[in-house]
Design a protein that fits this description.
Helices cover 23% and strands 36% of the residues. It is an alpha+beta fold and 449 residues long. The protein has two domains: 218 residues, PmbA/TldD superfamily (PmbA/TldD fold); 210 residues, no CATH class. The protein starts with 9 loop residues before the first helix and ends with a strand. The mean pLDDT is 95.
Length: 449
């Protein structure tokens, strides 16, 4: 993909946002906010060495929210022509006029708007032609298929590149934006022996193509992960330690984020209701939010409301230091926004346990138990914390992987599971907004035969 050729510059987007706000005020709005965005992407995929898909996308859009006192209206459009912007603002204003008052709605406080916008190095165009992307995808898939002769089929390999840019403005006088990018390589293959058929995958994504794993290594890991699952067995129902592999451990942190997010808190639909300042995780656990990491996949100088983002401790020695709040949820709770409108920003989970443990060290610490490498279903009750998921992985004995297991269920309660974290490894994966190593839970119920 060549350098992104956006139809508009960032200054153009800022001017459009400003014009939308002017239109909103002329229609009688007491306050308004607008976002104008552009995106350009390319995705290719191959399967069994043959080209399967070549996709391009070019997106653009504008969304506007207007306030008539405490009545709110929202509308959006994918047409950035002046007449379309005018009609969209009029539609938002009409909605607001017929909407019931909400005492908690409105822009974030003016004093919280970001004053300085640091360069977080978030945009790196990938100058990749279609032919080059296809060759990378084929290299990735071939590396996977060459791992073992039992890999006889493939779900394919893909290479994608994306560039985006946006500007956000509101009637407090805030008007800022920036460009960003996100690129990825992935592969999934299928292995078969006399008794079973298994699949697995691997991927890498990053802001810069220089930070991606090589296509060859991604394919090789996907192949190795697939082959090792052959010969899976079922287990009898037991209670044992459970080790969540790093790619899945981030899901546990996502569960924590959901439980302390404003929407679930003010609706009283969280098992961590009213836990600010209390012990919600093991004393070993420390999690901090780092919104200004260079090239971070969830880095941002300000949130979706223009509120400046700041580094902070989320969990300190297991104690919850803060919630995840937008201005709306904060008002509902009688608190102040934490700059998390739109989500969290780079949650960093510190390794902990007996020394600085790598993955093999975690297995030795566990001794005998279950290593989970795949989860199925969505068995979480956010109100009670009850947790039950289909799973697959490996049985571990004396700190060594013994054999693969499948068709099992793991169950517990997240409130207990968080308290029973006994170690977090240094095998950290930076593949999303939560960066954590593998997480070892002291005890869970593993249901099988």
């Amino acid at each position: 993909m060549s350098e992104p050729r956006f139809t508009y510059s960032l200054d153009d987007l800022k001017q459009m946002s400003e014009e939308v706000l002017r239109l909103a005020k002329s229609n009688g709005a007491t306050a308004a906010e607008a976002e104008v965005s552009l995106g350009s992407g390319q995705n290719v995929s191959v399967r069994m060495g043959e080209t399967e898909n070549i996709e391009y996308n070019r997106d653009k859009g504008m969304s506007v929210t207007v306030y008539f006192g405490q009545r709110r209206g929202h509308a959006s459009t994918s047409d950035l022509a002046s007449n379309a912007l005018k009609d969209t603002v009029a539609a938002a204003c009409n909605i607001a006029r017929y909407t019931a008052e909400d005492p908690f709605c409105g822009l974030a406080e003016p004093s919280l708007m970001a004053k300085e916008i640091p360069d977080l190095d978030l945009h790196h165009a990938w100058n990749l032609t279609v032919e080059e992307a296809l060759e990378l995808a084929k290299e990735c898939e071939m590396a996977a298929r060459n791992v073992d002769s039992r890999i006889n089929n493939s779900e394919g390999a893909s290479v994608s590149a994306y560039d985006g840019m946006f500007a956000y403005a509101n009637t407090h006088g805030f008007n800022e934006g920036y460009a960003s990018s996100r690129h990825s390589i992935s592969c999934a293959v299928i292995a078969e022996d006399e008794e079973s058929m298994q699949r697995d995958y691997w991927y890498s994504n990053a802001r810069s193509p220089d930070d991606l794993q090589s296509a060859e290594s991604i394919g090789r890991i996907a192949g190795e992960r697939t082959v090792r699952r052959l010969g899976g067995r079922r287990l009898k129902t037991v209670q044992v330690p459970v080790l969540f592999e790093a790619p899945l451990a981030s899901g546990l942190i996502s569960n924590l984020v959901s439980a302390i997010s404003g929407g679930n808190l003010y609706r009283k639909s969280s098992f961590l209701l009213d836990t600010l300042g209390t012990q919600v995780m093991s004393p070993l656990v420390n999690i901090r939010e780092e919104p200004h990491l260079k090239r971070g996949l969830a880095s941002a100088p300000f949130d979706n409301e223009g509120v400046t983002t700041m580094q902070r401790d989320l969990i300190k020695d297991g104690v919850l230091q803060g919630y995840m709040l937008s201005s709306y949820s904060a008002r509902k709770l009688g608190m102040q926004t934490t700059g998390n409108a739109g989500g969290n920003h780079n949650l960093i989970v510190e390794p902990c346990g007996t020394g600085d443990l790598d993955f093999n060290g975690l297995l030795k610490t566990m001794g005998t138990g279950l290593l989970v490498t795949e989860l199925l279903g969505h068995g979480l009750n956010m109100v009670t914390g009850d947790y039950s998921r289909g799973a697959a992985g490996f049985w571990v004995e004396n700190g060594v992987i013994a054999y693969p297991v499948e068709e099992i269920t793991i169950a517990g309660n997240l409130r207990d599971m968080f308290q029973q974290i006994v170690a977090i490894g240094n095998d950290v994966l930076a593949q999303g907004s939560k960066q954590t190593g593998s997480i070892l839970i002291e005890r869970m119920t593993v249901a099988g035969e």
